[in-house]
Write a structure and sequence with these properties.
The complex is a heterotrimer of chains A (177), B (339) and C (122). Chain A is mainly alpha-helical. Chain A contains six helices and no strands. In chain A, α4 packs antiparallel against α5 and α5 runs antiparallel to α6. The two termini of chain A are 16 Å apart. The C terminus of chain A is likely disordered. Chain B is of the alpha+beta class and 339 residues long. Helices cover 35% and strands 27% of the residues of chain B. In chain B, the strands form four sheets. Chain B has a nine-stranded mixed β-sheet, with helices on one face. Chain B has a three-stranded antiparallel β-sheet with strand order 3-5-4, covered by helices on one side. The radius of gyration of chain B is 23 Å and the shape is globular. About 2% of the residues of chain B have low confidence. Chain C is 20% helix and 36% strand. Chain C has two helices and eight strands; from the N terminus they run αβββββαβββ. In chain C, the strands form two sheets. Chain C has a four-stranded antiparallel β-sheet with strand order 2-1-7-6. A three-stranded antiparallel β-sheet of chain C has the order 3-4-5. The longest helix of chain C has 20 residues. The radius of gyration of chain C is 18 Å and the shape is flat. About 6% of the residues of chain C have low confidence. Classes of the chains: A mainly alpha (177), B alpha+beta (339), C alpha+beta (122). At the B-C interface, α1, β1, β6, β7 and β8 of B face α1 and β8 of C. Chain A: Pfam families: Hpre_diP_synt_I. Chain A: This is Heptaprenyl diphosphate synthase component I. Chain A: Keywords: Membrane, Transmembrane, Transmembrane helix. Chain A: InterPro entries: Hpre_diP_synt_I, Hpre_diP_synth_I.
């Protein structure tokens, strides 16, 4: 448990993070991507920040709420929604497995990269399934890996910055600030 | 702390760059064109952003065809065949000289004066038929490469017979096109001149991968693949499957033996020759098919070329330098490395 | 930088490079074909210089894509999907080239020559 502060603060911060995640999601939609429906995943930074500030459950909540809200209000429940859902699902699995290694044995930016890779794998899997083309998965894998390294680094750095701004401490459980 | 951020950024960038480089394809776009010339389909691919390159290549092909075609009565080759004398243009002179050299080097297995015989059989045309023994013998009398003589000062004489440069013209075109491309500063090109594969420039993926047509299976199916790292190479194949007609259950293919007057029966289904010169590869592929593996190896020893002989009993005989570059795809054949 | 950081980067890089390593797989090649696959249509057309045709592919939701074959190249010449990425892809000319219409679940790909030969000597 990493959380800092009172439960009410936690709820408020999570709400803010979710709202920010939705905004980033819309903004990053302006970046062109060869595969329609597939996103860069910068909005994952907010989920990562939730993890860093509080706990795994918070990360799941922030990211999942983001996907669902975007799907219900903006993008519709189509392929894009499916990609994001699968992407968040996979990145959360990665977070579950690797999250405990932070901050002692794993840097935040590397965690961001690993989660980005999970996110992209999930999206890619959905697209490949949708067009029944397993070779599509393989042919886009190199680009997705490269993108994971870049956007993952960005999300990790952004999450770290956000956490510092929100008053996170390096060692968990330092109490309310 | 700051140093570790820098280090990680560098590492991430390096990994990204590595991926980008490996994913990166070619610098310039490839332009492609199909040209029907010299009685066959030619596919030209050049790496260039200037569309006029292909235009010039097509012009050159048509020009050469105009000079060398045995069919067109106004070509220089036809003039030499019909009048027995010719003052040749530079390219025609080159081809004729080359033809004489290859004929000499192969002891007549390749013979440019085979025209009367080719016309008699007509393989590849509507008039294809099995000629009588007398007709063959009469035509054979005119087949002798020694009757083609260079008189100096760009002049040639042909004292008997007719010229048919079909066994070397496409190859020559290939070499001319490579020279043309080099003079235009083109970096890479791949040409398929009716089955003659000519590659030019550093291979985009370390080696040029050139397939060898399977002698039994439909067009496009591969017996094996050659991987050539050279910056200029031509692979020319002569095979029984290319042009033939069947009469009474017998298949007559188009590679005539200048000594017997009939389709060559050397126990081969196909021969592929790899040289840096496509004209030489073209001439030799015909010659080696006629000569067969043993005589063929003796001929090869005097030229800087490699070859693959595909025999009727499903053996693939390959010259030692080419063996490591060849991967067989059909296991029903056996590869034997020649000495 | 921590040990596991490098491990993460290297793992991702390895994943990214793996298809390129696997990409060289020997197989018996065949003539060049264009494969059109969608939920409503599955067709393989042999490519040949004399081939000239246009195929209208209907999508499940009533939309369409027009696949145009001109000799040895293919393209999606028109479509009513919102982004028209498939049309923007342009001409497909070599084995491995493909155009994808995600909304209509359509893939148009050139296949044959399992290992993408530079030429075929015949």
């Amino acid at each position: 448990m990493n959380w800092t502060g009172y439960p009410s603060r936690r709820l408020a911060v999570n709400g803010l993070l979710t709202a920010l995640a939705i905004c980033v999601n819309q903004l990053e939609g302006m970046f062109p991507h060869p595969l329609p429906g597939v996103k860069l995943g910068l909005a994952n930074a907010l989920g990562l920040a939730a993890f860093g500030l509080f706990d795994f459950k918070d990360a799941v909540m922030v990211s999942t709420l983001r996907v669902i809200t975007v799907g219900l209000t903006f993008s519709g429940l189509g392929l894009s929604f499916g990609c994001s859902l699968a992407g968040v699902g996979c990145s959360m699995v990665v977070l579950l497995l690797l999250g405990r290694l932070w901050p002692e044995r794993l840097s935040l930016w590397a965690l961001g990269q690993a989660m980005a890779m999970g996110f992209n794998l999930g999206q890619l899997a959905v697209v490949a399934w949708a067009v029944s083309s397993p070779s599509l998965f393989l042919s886009y894998l190199p680009i997705m890996a490269g993108s994971s390294l870049v956007t993952g680094f960005a999300t990790g750095t952004m999450a770290g910055w956000l956490m510092r701004k929100a008053g996170a401490s390096k060692s968990p459980g330092r109490g309310p600030i | 702390m700051r140093r570790s951020y820098l280090l990680t950024a560098v590492l991430a960038l390096l990994a990204l760059a590595g991926l980008a480089i490996s994913g990166a394809r070619r610098d310039l776009p490839w332009e492609e064109r199909e040209v029907f010339a010299m009685d066959t389909l030619m596919r030209l691919k050049v790496q260039s952003d200037d569309p006029k390159v292909l235009d010039r290549m097509e012009e050159e092909i048509r020009r050469l065809e105009g000079l060398l075609s045995a069919h067109a009565p106004t070509s220089e080759v036809s003039i030499l065949s019909s009048t027995g004398a010719l003052k040749a243009s530079p390219e025609t002179e080159q081809v004729l000289q080359l033809s004489i050299q290859v004929a000499q080097g192969t002891h007549g297995a390749f013979d440019p004066t085979i025209g009367a015989l080719s016309r008699l059989w007509g393989i590849g045309t509507e008039e294809a038929r099995v000629p009588s023994r007398e007709e063959i013998l009469r035509a054979l009398e005119t087949v002798d490469y020694r009757t083609l003589r260079y008189l100096g000062d760009h002049r040639f004489s042909l004292s008997a017979g007719r010229l048919d440069l079909g066994g070397i013209a496409k190859g020559f075109a290939g070499d001319r096109l490579v020279e043309l491309l080099a003079s235009m500063g083109i970096r890479r090109a791949v040409m398929d001149l009716g089955g003659n594969v000519v590659v030019f420039g550093p291979p985009p993926k370390a080696v040029w991968r050139i397939g060898i047509q399977h002698p039994d299976r439909p067009r496009g199916e591969v017996l094996g693949v050659l991987e050539l790292p050279e910056r200029r190479a031509a692979v020319v194949t002569s095979g029984v499957y290319e042009r033939y007609f069947e009469r009474d259950g017998v298949r007559y293919h188009h590679i005539l033996d200048p000594s017997t007057g009939e389709p060559a029966r050397s126990g081969l289904m196909a021969v592929s020759v790899a040289c840096s010169s496509s004209a030489l590869a073209d001439g030799l592929s015909t010659a080696l098919f006629v000569a067969g593996p043993e005589r063929g190896m003796e001929i090869l020893s005097r030229h800087r070329c490699q070859a693959i002989f595909v025999t009727e009993d499903r053996r693939v005989l390959i010259t030692p330098q080419l063996a490591p570059r060849f991967s067989l795809r059909d296991r029903s054949f056996r590869v034997e490395v020649l000495r | 930088m921590k040990v596991l950081d490098a491990a993460v980067v290297l793992t991702i890089a390895a994943l990214g490079l793996s298809p390129l390593v696997m990409g060289v797989s020997p197989s018996v090649s065949g003539p060049l074909v264009v494969r059109i696959s969608s939920p409503t249509l599955n067709r393989t057309i042999r490519l040949d210089p004399s081939t000239h045709l246009t195929i209208r592919v209907q999508s499940r939701d009533g939309g369409f894509n027009l696949v145009e074959v001109q000799g040895l190249k293919v393209r999606v010449s028109d479509a009513d999907c919102p982004d028209r990425e498939c049309v923007k892809r342009g001409w497909l000319t070599s084995p491995g080239d493909q155009a994808v219409c995600l909304p209509h679940r359509l893939v148009v790909r050139i296949e044959g020559d399992g290992d993408e030969l530079d030429g075929l000597s015949q």
